[in-house]
Structures are given as C-alpha cells and as structure tokens.
Amino acid sequence: MEQADSGAADSVPQGSVRQSGGTENSGTEGSGVAVAGLADSGVAGSDAEAARSRTGRIGRRLLAVRRGDRVLVLLAALVTFLLLFPAAVPNGVGRLGSLLETFLPWLGLTAPLLAALALLRRSAVALAAALAPAAAWCALFGGLLLPPSDTSSDVTALQHNVSDENPDPSGTAGRLLKAGADLVALEELTPAALPAFEEALQGRYPHHAVTGTVGLWSTYPLDDVRPVDIKPQGVGAGWNRGLRATARTPHGDVAVYVAHLPSVRIGLSGGFRSAWRDESAALLGAAIAAEPLERVILLGDLNSTVDDRGLAPVSSQMRLPGSGLAFSWPAAMPVARIDQILAREATVTHVWSLSATGSDHLPIAARIRF
What we know:
Strand 1 (155-161), helix 6 and strand 2 (183-187) form a beta-alpha-beta unit. The longest helix has 62 residues, at 2-63. It is elongated, with a radius of gyration of 39 Å. By secondary structure, it is of the alpha+beta class. Helix 2 runs antiparallel to helix 4 (110-121) and helix 6 (169-177) runs parallel beside helix 7. It has helices at 2-63, 67-84, 96-102, 110-121, 124-145, 169-177, 194-201, 275-289, 312-315, and strands at 155-161, 183-187, 207-211, 214-218, 222-227, 242-249, 252-260, 265-267, 271-273, 296-301, 339-344, 347-353, 364-369. 42% of the residues lie in helices and 21% in strands. It has a six-stranded mixed β-sheet with strand order 3-4-2-1-13-12, with no helix packed on it. A five-stranded mixed β-sheet has the order 5-6-7-10-11, with no helix packed on it.
C-alpha cells in the first residue's frame, strides 16, 4: 500500500508538474503576446492622439489673435485706410494731409513689412490682414507698373527743370535732344544759361518762346504766346513762371501751358509749408478752366504729385498718365514725380524718366494721344 501510494504519488505529481508546467508556459506566452499587443495599440493610439494634439495646437496658434497680432492687424487696417482715403487726414496741422499724399506710393512698403512680421509670429490672421494694404496699393498704383497698352502717340512731350545752378546747360540740352520729343518745356532758365539752350535746341526746334524763367521749344509753329499770371500774393516783382502758347499740330490746335509752381518746404516747426504753391495752383487751374481751346497740354514743375490735394484745382481738370511712375526728384535718388505732363481732351498713355543731367531733377517724357 505504501509503495502503491508512493508510486501513485510519484506519477501524479510528475504529470501534474508537466501538465501544469506546459499550461503555465503556454498561458504565460499567450498572455505576454496579448499584453504586448495591447501595449503596441496603446502606444500607437497615444502617438496619433499626440500628433492630433500638436496639429490642433499649431492650428490654434496660427488662428489665435494674440496681443501682438492685434497690433499688426490694426496697423494693416490703418495703412489700408490711409491708402484708400488719404483725404481723411486733415491739413489743419502742418498740412499733414498734403505731405502724406505727396509720398503716398511709398506707404505700400509697409505691406511686405507687416507680412514679414506676421510670418515671424506664425500668425495666419496677421498675414491675412497684411494682404489688405497690398491689395489697396495694387489697385491704386499697380497699373502704373504695367507696360503701356498703346505705344503709339500723336505728340511726344518732354518736361525738365534744368536748375538755375546747372553747370552744363549745353550738355543738358544735348541729352534732351536725344529724346526726340515734339514739345520741350524747361524751367529755371537763367539769363546766363538761356543762350546755350537756344543755340543747342534751335536746329530741331525752330519755334520757341520764353517768358521769365520758363520756356517752350516746339517742332510745331507757335501762336498766341502770352504769360500766365500764377504769382501768389507776397512774392516779389519779376517773378514770372507761367507761359501759354497755341501749338499748330497736324492734329489741330493745342493750348500748351508751361508752369513752375512755388517750392514747398518741410520742417519740424512749420510742417509741410505749401501755401504759396497751393495759391499758385489755384491761379493756374483758373487759367486752364478759362482756356477756350478744348485740347490742353500742361508741362511743368508743379512741386508735388498729382495725389496732393493742393494740386486739385489743376489735376481735377486733367487726365492723369495711364502708366509709368516716372519719379523725377531728387535726381540722385528719385522718390516722387513732382514734374508733370498732363492733358485735357487727350490721353497721356505713358510717362517715363530720362537719364540724369546737370539738374537736381530728372527729365520726364510722355506719349500723348488725341
């Protein structure tokens, strides 16, 4: 009995051990695989969730309007408003409105600056806001950068303030001749320099007229030449900067005006001082309004851009150039076109700047269609 019990005891534990061992090993391996699978699934889910979280944070960061973003958005809105409505800036203090309008195209430089700041801040809202002043600038001035749609012309005109300190009048006249214009208007002609211009230009331009310090040279006969009184009150005697003539062109008679409006001054104390210029512009505008001939060409140094409200008495009656920025002053680094070629009952299809002469202004030329 003891042996049998002992044998039975010996056989049962061995089988039990083997069976238990097999079962335990198998169960343990299966359990390990299942746990690993659950772990892998958990890691993958965690990674996906983390990725979604990061994407969400980036999206929220881009779309969030933080304090710095609000500043950029407000600046973009302000620049857009000033570009579209510069007349909203009053002239009562330092004539700031006219100053802004004189250099209005340069306000567009703020658009790429605002866009760069928005990219640095990774703000989609600020970047979208920066597109507003860019769009406004393109609507106002983008067309001037395009090539002219019409390259033909009935008349080519040239305008140049030759400077009363020009060291080489003959050389300046020689450069102007190369433009091949039909009409040439010059300002700041001094008694000492006038003979040099007359001698150099007489071959191509048999017709010319000079009044005070302004002159007109023409390939067409000139008739009814007379001075135009644009002298503001308070300016001394002998100040004569306006001229009017009838040019007998193959396309009919055209009234040609040459004008040199008073200079403006910019200072910290007085701001943008343009009272004399504005008064002279009003006198010139009245003369053009009373002109009996329908077709008018105005050539002159008006000492401002056509956007300046101070020139409204003149510019409101004329057609502005269709293309071309043609910055003319200062010659060393032009920032504005204060020399103008404008027309009434005609179209200035394109205006451009010429190379520098001995003047502090660049010459400008234009094609004109009747």
